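Structure (tokenized):
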């Protein structure tokens, strides 16, 4: 359930998997558009829904994606164009598909099984201590809805047991985790759209000794 200045949205998924959208207009702000005070619409009339959503400054396609991971390349499987190394892959300019490199260091994707760590999805995972140094990387959720609660989830392992993972949302630190050992552990947090500085920037940062081996992460997701 998302709260807006003019409307409250209720979403439900029926047994066939189709999404229906119930709109209850709370104020007279939309009456000028000729809408009924209460209207039930379906995905089939998305154009109308988009008009309403635009009034709140939000995209209906963004609001819609319940149960969909909003993080791009959160499993680090997109290695297109990357340079192969014995341990994995990297781009010469340090970049990584889907992610913003926030510290000018190289973002390095490692093979499943490296240092005894198994990726939790696919063939690759990310090392938060690259060559050289602890990295900071992030993604902006451009379509995050103010006040909407999202679930951030990722898996992390630390075979050297001296590294950690700091997580920031909207410029504020929300978690500092210390996985212990080579077995991936799942971490999950609730985050709110527009919280902190309002940037909707997720930032993940490696911590610990800068010795080219850091915590490994995989399966990063943000879902509503
Ligand atoms: Ca993966
Ligand atoms: Ca390290």
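Design, position by position:
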């Amino acid at each position: 359930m998302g709260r807006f200045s003019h409307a409250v949205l209720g979403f439900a998924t029926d047994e066939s998997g189709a999404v229906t959208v119930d709109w209850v207009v709370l104020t007279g702000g939309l009456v000028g558009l000729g809408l009924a005070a209460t209207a039930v619409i379906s995905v089939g009339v998305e154009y109308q829904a988009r008009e309403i959503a635009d009034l709140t400054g939000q995209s209906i396609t963004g609001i819609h994606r319940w149960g969909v991971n909003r993080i791009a390349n959160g499993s680090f499987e997109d290695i297109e164009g990357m340079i192969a190394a014995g341990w994995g892959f990297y781009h010469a300019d340090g970049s990584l598909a889907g992610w913003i490199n926030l510290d000018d260091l190289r973002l390095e994707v490692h093979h499943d099984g490296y240092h005894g760590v198994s990726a939790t999805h696919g063939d690759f995972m990310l090392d938060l201590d690259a060559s050289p140094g602890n990295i900071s990387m992030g993604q902006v959720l451009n379509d995050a809805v103010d006040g909407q609660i999202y679930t951030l989830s990722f898996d992390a392992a630390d075979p050297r047991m001296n590294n950690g993972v700091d997580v920031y949302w909207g410029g504020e630190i929300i978690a500092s985790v210390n996985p212990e050992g080579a077995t991936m552990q799942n971490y999950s947090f609730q985050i709110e759209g527009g919280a902190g500085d309002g940037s909707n920037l997720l930032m993940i940062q490696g911590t610990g000794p800068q010795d080219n081996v850091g915590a490994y992460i995989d399966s990063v997701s943000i879902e509503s």
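Reviewer-requested clarification: The radius of gyration is 20 Å. The chain has two domains: 2-64, 83-223.
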